[in-house]
Batch of 3 targets.
Target 1
Amino acid sequence: MTDYIGYIAGFLVSFALVPQIIRVYKLKSAREISVLYNSGMLLGLFLWLAYGIILGLVPIIVWNIIGAILAALLLLAKLKYGR
Amino acid sequence: MTDYIGYIAGFLVSFALVPQIIRVYKLKSAREISVLYNSGMLLGLFLWLAYGIILGLVPIIVWNIIGAILAALLLLAKLKYGR
């Protein structure tokens, strides 16, 4: 039951990144994306993943893998489209 | 020990939102911010908070309270600066 809360939570939070990614690729502009903080976020997501693995929390593991992939896409967009 | 991983993780991920907020307020432009998804993210953060409270995971509770405040600030910026 609690896991379901985690799954829905992770879905909402992680997919909040998707339109950001789409807009950046569509506008071909990543002016409002910061490489430093995006990299920090990516590292943070890996740490949450480690946390989830250690405590065996499946929703956290799942959504931080997905989140890390999305954050990486945003970082790639920044490198591709510059400022 | 595991909690420390969670605290660092949450710090990195939550503060990835801060420069985004600063840029939006500084540029007075929220064009790349989506109200729908930002609201969804805010709801997701509340659900992660509930998940953390149920399972007694302090780093998750702490960072989702902070994350929700930051997401709310971003939403306010969007409402204030429009597109």
Target 2
Amino acid sequence: MRPLPEPASEKLTLASVLYALGDPVRLELVSCVSTSPGMACSGAGLEVPKSTLTNHWRILREAGVVRMAVDGRCRRVWLRTDVLGTQFPGLLDMVLRLTENESTPTAVH
Amino acid sequence: MRPLPEPASEKLTLASVLYALGDPVRLELVSCVSTSPGMACSGAGLEVPKSTLTNHWRILREAGVVRMAVDGRCRRVWLRTDVLGTQFPGLLDMVLRLTENESTPTAVH
């Protein structure tokens, strides 16, 4: 597998990570990949155009939230839990938990 | 004081709050107002044009992160800690802590 470019851990900034997470589709993608590490980028099953999806994954990768690699005709994706955990301890877990709370049917909308 | 419009607590979304926090200037503004509740919007002492600053405060207010009120010729601002604490428990404290860590001189950049 050929890894795609990603920022070095010390280049990550809180603002760019929060910006990358600050979109409902991207929150859903992050939630998907947290339960399916190494999933295909196309496998999230969201009803968004392919180009939009590609753009969302790129924003997440360039902010340092996910790692991506080309595997034949497919792109695979992982959360950079190690790096995020070191740079911003607890943030990713909290965002995943809040995303889950927000999407449960019992949540007040 | 005349309050400016703000979203009702149940209208806040995690994505829009994260988006609002996902900018270095806005993180700094949030950090300022956390230590000086009721401060004047113009009082953050940042080197950004006034129109840019106004826009950043508006994004924070419309996302539900801050509350603003007109006080004579000045606009005052507060964090909506109550609402944020109920909707997204722990998030604001974590972001403030991580912002502080990131801006300490010992942080690796």
Target 3
Amino acid sequence: MTQDGVDALDELRVGLRDFAAERDWGQFHTPKNLAMALAGEVGELLEIFQWLTPEQAAEVMGSGRADDVRDELADVVIYLVRLADVLGVDLLEVAHAKLARNHDRFPPADVRGRADGPPAGA
Amino acid sequence: MTQDGVDALDELRVGLRDFAAERDWGQFHTPKNLAMALAGEVGELLEIFQWLTPEQAAEVMGSGRADDVRDELADVVIYLVRLADVLGVDLLEVAHAKLARNHDRFPPADVRGRADGPPAGA
Amino acid sequence: MTQDGVDALDELRVGLRDFAAERDWGQFHTPKNLAMALAGEVGELLEIFQWLTPEQAAEVMGSGRADDVRDELADVVIYLVRLADVLGVDLLEVAHAKLARNHDRFPPADVRGRADGPPAGA
Amino acid sequence: MTQDGVDALDELRVGLRDFAAERDWGQFHTPKNLAMALAGEVGELLEIFQWLTPEQAAEVMGSGRADDVRDELADVVIYLVRLADVLGVDLLEVAHAKLARNHDRFPPADVRGRADGPPAGA
């Protein structure tokens, strides 16, 4: 992909790195700690949805919980990008590679409409 | 940010949307289901690290578990991007907005070297 | 509660402690590691349910996934009991204390039928 | 195991069932919802530990975070017991059965001191 194409995520990656450095928080940003923090934020995201009916969940972005959803998604992105940066992993590269592999693993004819295999491509 | 700057993540977003549509898997991609899938993949990521010492974790990308780390990070990205797409949330926009708010919430002079407040900016 | 009343859970607690000791695995059973392992197993439990419809989920113990559910619930119990043992926390004591507090926090008249407050008592 | 041996956990199980019934919260206690709630509480537990050093984590029950640890462990127990009750699974029975299987899967001579296989027995 083009150099431009990675700028948006890179901007965030560098911004988070600088944010941690300015506060001398790098000492806390070990892979295990960041993985735990990521799990904690995903837990907070789940908590928004846990008692909602499927219908309420589908309409959540038009409800009073919309800002909470945005806030928790932001926190998940932040820890994921920080963790990947610390590990030296290019998130978009590995995701695209996995999607390509999933095209081979899950031929449409074999899996159409069935959830036996992971229905996202993961 | 520029139109170019969002292409890389957009490419993945659209690719995942098409992948699901081709397999008639959209029926499974409700917000609650995708949030659960995201939590499942983060769990798989944690399992790679859970018994590693801090030193082993710091060196994981040079170990035999490197491909597993890439694979699980890919799965986490995939479900996060899918979930955000279904909810209509721009991940980079909300993350940048949160980081900006965190600059105000955590002035360096107040928090330098201390983990009392979230040390990533989340 | 009576001494008898804690035997069942105690039996498991001691059994897990011995199991770890016999294998010299205590070195891995730090609080952070066990918390990560607990999150990993809860993630595996969620993965069984993530694509099921509410109806399929309600019937899961009569389906081909029943043994998987039992297996993952077992793993969750195992790590929870191990973690509590390492921390010196009595799980039933803290749970009963929390339920008592929740009786005060959530008077039925205030919350009947509404999910605004945590609907389990947590 | 004796009838007495299951009373302590049973007492909690029935208490949680009654608590939900009194508040007409059973409608929210579907297996998927309870699994999500369980993941949310485990996330809250992880958040207490995420920035602690291994030494601080080992001493957490003597620190200002001790009550938070007890509170989150209580919440995890509560949702786990509620989920198992809704599914009709006996937690101690499945855990003991799994531990027995793990004695066969992980002979001490094969695994002593090594974390390759799950070091809890899960």
